[in-house]
Design brief:
Blueprint (H helix, E strand, L loop, with lengths): L11 H10 L18 H13 L3 E9 L6 E9 L3 E7 L2 E7 L3 E6 L1 H6 L5 H7 L3 E5 L3 H7 L18 E7 L2 E10 L8 E8 L6 E8 L4 E7 L15 E3 H5 L1
Parallel strand pairs: 6-12
Antiparallel strand pairs: 1-2, 1-11, 2-3, 3-4, 4-5, 5-6, 7-8, 8-9, 9-10, 10-11
Helix pairs in contact: 1-5
Length: 246
């Protein structure tokens, strides 16, 4: 799709491509309940601590590319050591399951080809099977890195260069963090806005990323503290990665 990378560093959608290729916020204001002298550093430190204490989180991601009419959507539930996500774009669909011992991937032909980046020959081999990758391998690391709740800490920016303001949405007080990342030889310049709860634990609520070419991605976080259980597919429906990539 050539769209943005979710969570700022490495999302599962991009990881799949790597694996198979190498394989309205209101006008900012300062609610009376929020201290006006809170610093960016203090907010980030508290957010890191709050994320580390969570057992799970629900994600909804919408990515719109400036160069394509299609929209990629990701829905996921991430636990402490396991997670599951479904990635869809057009008619394509791919589902990822990660457990502490194995990662699994399945999808329809369109999803395996256009989202996961498989060749026609690989798609044929997979069919209706789940592809398995073992923990400790490079393919497993590629899809598992961002599939747990603790990994959400990666959305937090560095304090330097980040602007802090306050806002409200749906009656809730929010910290609003804004920062930019410059373009590199392989990435576009990005403008990022992250909102965190300003009442109670300062957990992420929403992150919006806009690229210099107009592409946009929105990530919504909810159900913090949920318990996530991920089971392996039946053994009879699993095919090892080596048999697909070989």
């Amino acid at each position: 799709m050539g769209t943005l990378v979710r969570r700022g560093v490495a999302g599962s959608a991009r990881a799949l491509v790597v694996m198979w290729a190498a394989l309205v916020l209101a006008v900012p204001l300062v609610p009376s309940a929020v201290a006006a002298n809170t610093t960016v550093g203090a907010v980030l430190t508290a957010a890191k601590d709050a994320i580390a204490k969570q057992t799970g989180v629900h994600l909804q991601v919408v990515s719109k590319s400036a160069s394509s009419a299609s929209t990629q959507r990701i829905v996921g539930d991430l636990g402490l050591k396991a997670g599951t996500e479904t990635v869809s774009e057009g008619a394509g669909k791919v589902t990822i399951r990660v457990t502490p011992t194995y990662g699994y991937l399945s999808g329809n032909a369109s999803g395996l080809k256009d989202i996961a980046g498989m060749t026609a020959a690989q798609v044929k081999k997979v069919g209706k099977f789940w592809v398995s990758v073992k923990a400790g391998t490079t393919p497993y690391a590629s899809i598992a890195t961002d599939m747990t709740a603790p990994s959400i800490v990666a959305v937090l920016p560095r304090a330097k260069g980040t602007q802090l303001s306050w806002g409200t949405a749906a009656g809730a007080n929010l910290y609003v963090l804004k920062w930019k990342t410059p373009a590199t030889s392989s990435t576009l310049a990005l403008s990022i806005t992250l909102t965190l709860a300003a009442t109670g634990a300062p957990l992420p609520v929403q992150q919006t990323t806009v690229a210099s070419n107009g592409s946009k991605e929105t990530v919504r976080f909810s159900k913090w503290g949920e318990r996530v259980s991920v089971s392996a597919p039946p053994a009879s429906s699993v095919i090892p990665y080596s048999k697909v990539a070989g």
